[in-house]
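Entry type: protein chain
Record version: 2
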Amino acid sequence: MAEVLEKKGIAVTKNFADANINYMEEDGKKIVDPHFWFDVALYKQATEEAAAQLISCSPRMKKEIQENLKKYLADLDALDAEITQKIAQIPRGAAQSRHAARCVQLLSPTATT
């Protein structure tokens, strides 16, 4: 699937800083973890890149695309604030999120050990 998309599409992740990218193993190879949407900041960056590409494909829609982008980024900021607030309420080490790519233990930034 990735090979087809790489030939036909544009990677909205192309400008991600290497320090912000997670890696995983697939078929014995180290690859970029495609689950970037777990990080709202990266998702916002990908959304901005998608909007830029849409504008380059359809310049006459620039104003509408930019207006929709602004609204969507505000929604993502609200989501990020809500996530941060809810995670802060979880006692340190009290929850785990299981995912096929990895297991992440959620740690409250305000909790003490």
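Comment: The longest strand covers residues 95-99.
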